[in-house]
Backbone:
């Protein structure tokens, strides 16, 4: 009796749940400490203490009717101003509160902006491998997600295929920088070429093609790599951001959209986003966490912790003969399956109590994703299991 | 360049904003204390102190990774259990955590359940006057909202018209008890008759017709009136609840759905609601506030405060000759416009610095809504303005 579109999604969710339940089953047999769950992007670094202090201070000293009350659907004006100022300090931009819309995480923000932009049948392009939820977000509003085939050499953007995929129906392009699941950061050169193509196609078709940059991992970068600020390269850019990873607040559901003045139809898009935030049922981003995020938006999570996990894991896995994409950001590692069918490989890994995610969930079969936002112990203790797995596949020379 | 559906909604929102701006303009001329804004359902009673204490205690004593982390899309198991237990104590029901899904307020919950149920073209019936956002919520998923004409005598449910409106395409019925905008509570007799009709029509058409009861005002009732617990009267009932009014936490965005075992396809509906919470971008209800709401779910707001406002306002307005529906719940008063076109009457009221909302926003032209969740001062000081307005229309005898 549930809707047809939800039926399929529920079946899919059941498959994911089956995997979790399998993990729990393994833990009950072998002990939790002997099961190495790399399947979830749930940070293992605690939120900075400043977040706790900020919330308590807000509750003790700010006007309680204001702290718990409705505000503009875009969020508190002072919060939006603080965040714009912080971005301007870090990125040399000149945003104001009129460019910031507070959202229920990045997932809320992406749904809001897609609701604003998409007519049924409109096309949205993204690049494989990509975060699988994009398909659902685009489908929510009758849009069609088209994925550009992966660049299996460097996992940058396959721009040649991309250019061919753009049509007059292309309303938006989503990129995820740093990328989930590969951990790759798209370079300035790649972004410049992307912008060139999109500008050219806008002219050719006389359309507006919006670039939606999903950036929850913006601050999680290693080896001094920089994430280009996309609004500087392409006028029709909208940024989606979340504090889920940078402040370890995924459960609190807080993020924002950056909607720059340079955007075609800026005013309609911003007003539309306010209205969409309302009618999709978010109404506004959770109020206390909005105020806390504004106070803490210059705080950083412990990037060093993730970096150590990355080095240990990447070092060991390549040493064992696995073919891995070297992550420059986020907390994911993308590894080639030693056999073509990565589902088979995931099953074999499970026998060593290693829980990995299939690449096909990201539009890239033949690979697996490891989320290394786990404890150091999990990383270190998993290595013998990975070594045994490598031996099983004859990778160790 | 924004979508066609959003264009209309943005235009509509602009009209609402224009009203707010007019209020601000009036305040800048006459002083804020001389403008009587009855347009917004934003509680003027502070959240109970227990909410603040609970949040601080959670931050100081619970595991920080758990408090800020992802959990099941349905919400924390212990939170859902606490809420089920509280409902069972109050209502004599026997819900478990498997019947409770934590949501981003009632607005989030309604969107989730409509996403689960509706195929494009499905019909949803509600009763005028109704909360105007229902139209948007139903349209979000391609559904069609049909409104039963109001019962202008008692503002109960017009069941004769309702029965005729049900077709094989009717997937759901939404009622709002106590009602926004009238403040009327539907009696047990009304609910029994409603259930009878729906049961009969389910049999006739061989369909499941879900009753969605939107109950953010459940605890706000006066004169000892009781709000019937609808799951007892009709098996296919889903309840949407919010702590926005009962704990004065509208900005925090916290509520829940009750999905009873008695529901047709209970399992698919519950699993579907979890998946819908995820893919609509809510992911989960905000985590800290989930935990705080569980601790405070037996707390009550200051109903006495609203009741006093109600008595003062209802007493004075009827005294001045206005024709008002006597509110038994919520914090709204629905008043007949002395002229057929209530838009004209709202404009006349504005000249007395009284801000009212047009009945047509609730599918009931010829009436206006007053939200009396304002300060006592606003209520008392507004009376001379209402009196002058009544005199202008020749109502005072």
Residues:
């Amino acid at each position: 009796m549930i809707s047809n579109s939800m039926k399929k999604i529920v079946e899919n969710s059941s498959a994911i749940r089956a995997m979790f339940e399998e993990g729990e089953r393994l833990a009950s047999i072998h002990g939790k400490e002997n099961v190495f769950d790399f399947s979830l992007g749930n940070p293992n670094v605690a939120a900075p203490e400043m977040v706790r202090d900020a919330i308590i201070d807000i509750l003790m000293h700010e006007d309680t009717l204001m702290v718990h009350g409705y505000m503009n659907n875009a969020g508190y004006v002072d919060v939006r101003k603080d965040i714009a100022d912080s971005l301007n300090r870090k990125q040399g931009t000149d945003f104001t509160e009129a460019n910031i819309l507070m959202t229920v995480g990045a997932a809320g923000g992406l749904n809001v902006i897609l609701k604003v932009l998409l007519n049924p049948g409109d096309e949205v392009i993204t690049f494989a491998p990509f975060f699988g939820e994009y398909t659902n977000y685009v489908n929510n509003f009758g849009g069609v997600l088209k994925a550009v085939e992966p660049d299996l050499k460097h996992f940058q953007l396959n721009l040649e295929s991309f250019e061919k995929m753009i049509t007059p129906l292309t309303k938006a392009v989503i990129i995820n920088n740093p990328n989930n699941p590969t951990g790759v950061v798209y370079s300035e050169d790649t972004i410049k070429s992307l912008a060139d193509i999109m500008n050219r196609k806008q002219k050719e078709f006389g359309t507006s093609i919006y670039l939606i940059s999903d950036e929850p991992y913006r601050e999680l970068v290693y080896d001094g790599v920089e994430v280009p600020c996309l609004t500087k390269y392409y006028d029709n850019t909208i940024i989606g951001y979340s504090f889920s990873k940078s402040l370890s607040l995924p459960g609190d559901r807080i993020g924002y959209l950056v909607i720059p003045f340079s955007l075609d139809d800026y005013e309609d898009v911003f007003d539309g986003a306010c209205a969409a935030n309302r009618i999709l049922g978010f109404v506004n981003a959770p109020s206390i966490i909005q105020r806390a995020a504004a106070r803490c938006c210059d705080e950083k999570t412990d990037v060093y912790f993730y970096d150590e996990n990355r080095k240990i894991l990447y070092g060991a896995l390549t040493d064992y003969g696995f073919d891995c994409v070297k992550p420059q950001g986020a907390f994911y590692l993308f590894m080639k399956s030693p056999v073509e069918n990565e589902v088979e490989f995931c099953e074999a890994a499970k026998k060593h109590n290693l829980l990995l995610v299939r690449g096909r969930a990201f539009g890239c079969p033949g690979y697996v994703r490891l989320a290394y936002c786990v404890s150091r112990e999990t990383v270190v203790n998993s290595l013998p299991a990975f070594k045994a797995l490598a031996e099983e596949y004859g990778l160790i020379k």
DSSP finds 13 helices and 13 strands in chain A. Chain A touches chain B through 78 residues (CB under 8 Å). The CA atoms of residues 130 and 362 of chain A lie 5 Å apart. The domain at 4-47+301-392 of chain A is CATH 3.90.1150.10 (Aspartate Aminotransferase, domain 1).
